[in-house]
Design brief:
alpha/beta
Length: 248
């Protein structure tokens, strides 16, 4: 990479986002990460900065336009070029549709889907000024196309992300901005050693996923030499959603 390239990662204080922040910083990016979890964000910033990595935590509610615009302005300070955005922030509520309130529905859709639109729109305004455009990756889920009960708000938001992804890819193509989504399956971000054999056996890969599996997919989709892949969704689930299961 040449020059100061900035990457923004939303929902970066924990889980998959935390691994993405560290990975992109180690790759040489100035990484700005946003989250509502301020204490966790500050702690991660201190830890990675102490290792010599260039990271900056920006507390933000990404369903609010003013917070999103502030994040983008921070990204291009000090002569930096914003070239990567990974929309990873999200939340869920598991509740029967008979009892799910409109306020809960709005909260999930705003956090998961509206935030993707706002961040992509504002990041694209910066990226279109770049000589080589930029890359946006939106984190969807295998729950966009398969479900358990009581997951309506989350499923709708993740399905919306896939549709929004190919719409943005069409609209932003003239500015050399590629837009793709990733649908993770079971990615264990907690205690991997506590998983059971049956957990791993549900996958063609014979194992549950690691955050690093998502990191590698993001590296592929944001590689500046890889601009032929755009408008698509990449499922990273160890084959779990392709496995036929018959109860005996």
């Amino acid at each position: 990479m040449t020059g100061k390239q900035a990457a923004i990662i939303t929902g970066g204080a924990g889980g998959i986002g935390k691994e993405l922040v560290a990975a992109y910083a180690k790759k040489g990016y100035d990484v700005l990460f946003a989250d509502v979890l301020e204490e966790q964000g500050r702690q991660l910033e201190r830890g990675l900065s102490a290792s010599g990595l260039r990271v900056q935590f920006v507390p933000a509610d990404l369903a609010k336009e003013e917070d999103v615009k502030h994040l983008m302005e921070e990204a291009v300070k000090n002569g930096r070029t914003l070239s990567v955005l990974i929309n990873n922030a999200g939340k869920s509520v598991w509740k029967s549709p008979y009892h799910l309130t409109s306020e809960e529905w709005d909260d999930v859709l705003n956090a998961n889907l509206k935030s993707v639109f706002l961040c992509s729109r504002e990041a694209a305004k910066k990226m279109r000024e770049n000589e080589n455009g930029g890359a946006i990756v939106n984190m969807s889920s295998t729950r966009a196309f398969m479900s358990e009960p009581d997951s309506e708000a989350y499923a709708a938001s993740k399905g919306g992300i896939i549709a929004l992804t190919h719409a943005l890819a069409a609209s932003l193509s003239k500015d050399s901005i590629v837009v793709n989504s990733i649908s993770p399956g079971w990615i264990e971000t907690g205690h991997y050693d506590r998983l059971r054999s049956i957990d791993h056996e549900q996958h063609f890969s014979n194992r549950v996923g690691h955050p690093l599996d998502i990191v590698k997919a993001c590296f592929y989709l944001t590689d500046p030499d890889n601009r032929f892949v755009t408008g698509t969704n990449v499922t990273v689930d160890g084959g779990m959603t392709k496995k036929m299961i018959y109860e005996e």
